[in-house]
């Protein structure tokens, strides 16, 4: 385990090399050591997790996929993450890493970031670098309290991302889905909840993912969805959700009772946000993602190569 002084030294050297663009020879001269010694320290910074390298694949195939999808869905931007050589269990991390890199490089003068919930967004937060962005506030876009899988709840992700940025986070003191519409209306009038939801409507950028309620559904594993709900969903043509709001194959909002018991931004409000970044991994989300894109809920898409290839073939 690294000592605090050793860690500070590695961070200083890594910053000079990776951020400031200094050569190893220049760094060695500054610290009065040999260049091979600096090389070993840089390797140590990687081995200890202080430095993580993101490889942006710009092969002909991924570039073509990006352009085709950008044109097809009128996206502002897209990143297709190469899956070549990756084990299936590491693809989500790679997509999260690409999302973290994209967000970090495109923040500009952004002051308010909204974030939904889920496993892929959790990977983005884990992979986000430590930065000094004290002016940024991160806002949960949907409720989420309880004891199960709190590490993927919007409140937790907002807190963890803000910590990485050395910024601040808001907290939405409510579940994602409540028992009755009456309870929802009551909670919406609680000043703290009302204030956070108002912040959520006015964020500069929103981070979301897309869910498939029928396969590998996080909402189902958390107990938010039961078998009878899924039977109803199929009858009503529901194919996916964003921030726990359900839509059909055309991206239209479906008038299902669950949609009326969500504490969080509506899909109409999501559309009004200046930039919505969708971080999506997995071919099982193909129909859900296609519908979300048809509904114009996503401006920037970060996606794995396999799902991108399948998406091109979707009509």
Question: Would you summarize the structure shown here?
Answer:
This protein is an alpha/beta fold and 315 residues long. Helices cover 46% and strands 12% of the residues.
CATH topology of the largest domain, by name, is Rossmann fold
Characterize the biggest β-sheet. 7 strands, parallel
Which consecutive residue ranges, at least 5 long each, have pLDDT under 50?
none
Question: According to CATH, what is the class of the largest domain?
Answer: Alpha Beta
Keywords: DNA-binding, Transcription, Transcription regulation
Protein name: Sugar-binding transcriptional regulator
Pfam families: Sugar-bind
Domain Sugar-binding: 60-312
What does this structure look like?
The chain has two domains: 4-47, Arc Repressor Mutant, subunit A; 60-313, Rossmann fold. 46% of the residues lie in helices and 12% in strands. The chain has helices at residues 4-19, 24-31, 35-47, 60-73, 88-105, 119-127, 154-165, 181-188, 191-201, 218-221, 227-236, 267-271, 286-294, 305-313; strands at 77-81, 112-115, 137-140, 168-169, 205-208, 238-242, 245-248, 275-280, 300-304. The strands form two sheets. A seven-stranded parallel β-sheet has the order 1-9-8-5-2-3-4, sandwiched between helices. Strands 6-7 form a two-stranded antiparallel ribbon. Helix 1 packs across helix 3 (35-47), helix 4 crosses helix 14 and helix 6 (119-127) runs parallel beside helix 7 (154-165). The longest helix has 18 residues, at 88-105. 40% of the residues are buried.
